[in-house]
Amino acid sequence: MPDLSTFPITQRWPALHPDRLQLYAAPTPNGVKVSIMLEETGLAYEPHLVDISNNESKDPAFVSLNPNGRIPAIIDPAGPDGNPIAIWESGAILLYLADKTGQLNSSAPAQRYETLAWVFFQVSGVGPTFGQLGFFLKFAGKDYEDKRPRQRFIDESKRLLGVLDRQLEGREWLVDDYSIADIATLGWVNALAEVYAAGDILGLGEYSNVQTWLRRGLARPAVQRGLRIPARPA
């Protein structure tokens, strides 16, 4: 049985199944990237809810795993050298899991790097921009008198949606096959309407290729399961 006791986070969130991959996350657009990936690959894992509304990601035990204090993070008890390994940053986790399982990223160099480009597009552009838009539309930012910051993120969100829409013209997925690029992006696009109520202000219906892609992604059983993991308390 793997010994995870050297990771302080396991004192705060004990591993009931230390032989399984340990996921520390919340069902946010960033967190569900990893839960969807795990559901798609079929890896055995144990989810732990990190309640970011109570700043649990700033708990020293969590920060010991991820110095940036942001979900998600994982511990794989069966790392590349047979020893446990900790991985943080959602894009790095997706790439690690794709490499570990040989799934959801091509082994052909050209397609592999194109897929990674779209993953990095999400982590550098889509996630930060849509997240800031959500802050201004849904959370404390809606009370700001100065509406220029909000408009900036509305405009940039529309631009990014346009990039996605053009890429999806004539395609089912962002690259040639369903991949970590789609997994990285689905939760964020879904959140625009379902969490941030940004559908009207962004004119989401105008991005028909994005809408078709989103419906196709949400129809996947693993995506539906992953969007609810880790489960919030009833």
UniProtKB/TrEMBL annotation:
<feature type="domain" description="GST N-terminal">
    <location>
        <begin position="18"/>
        <end position="105"/>
    </location>
</feature>
<comment type="similarity">
    <text>Belongs to the GST superfamily.</text>
</comment>
<dbReference type="GO" id="GO:0016740">
    <property type="term" value="F:transferase activity"/>
</dbReference>
<feature type="domain" description="GST C-terminal">
    <location>
        <begin position="108"/>
        <end position="234"/>
    </location>
</feature>
<dbReference type="InterPro" id="IPR010987">
    <property type="entry name" value="Glutathione-S-Trfase_C-like"/>
</dbReference>
<keyword id="KW-0808">Transferase</keyword>
<dbReference type="InterPro" id="IPR036282">
    <property type="entry name" value="Glutathione-S-Trfase_C_sf"/>
</dbReference>
<dbReference type="InterPro" id="IPR004046">
    <property type="entry name" value="GST_C"/>
</dbReference>
<dbReference type="Pfam" id="PF02798">
    <property type="entry name" value="GST_N"/>
</dbReference>
<dbReference type="InterPro" id="IPR036249">
    <property type="entry name" value="Thioredoxin-like_sf"/>
</dbReference>
<dbReference type="Pfam" id="PF00043">
    <property type="entry name" value="GST_C"/>
</dbReference>
<protein>
    <submittedName>
        <fullName>Glutathione S-transferase-like protein</fullName>
    </submittedName>
</protein>
<dbReference type="InterPro" id="IPR004045">
    <property type="entry name" value="Glutathione_S-Trfase_N"/>
</dbReference>
<dbReference type="InterPro" id="IPR040079">
    <property type="entry name" value="Glutathione_S-Trfase"/>
</dbReference>
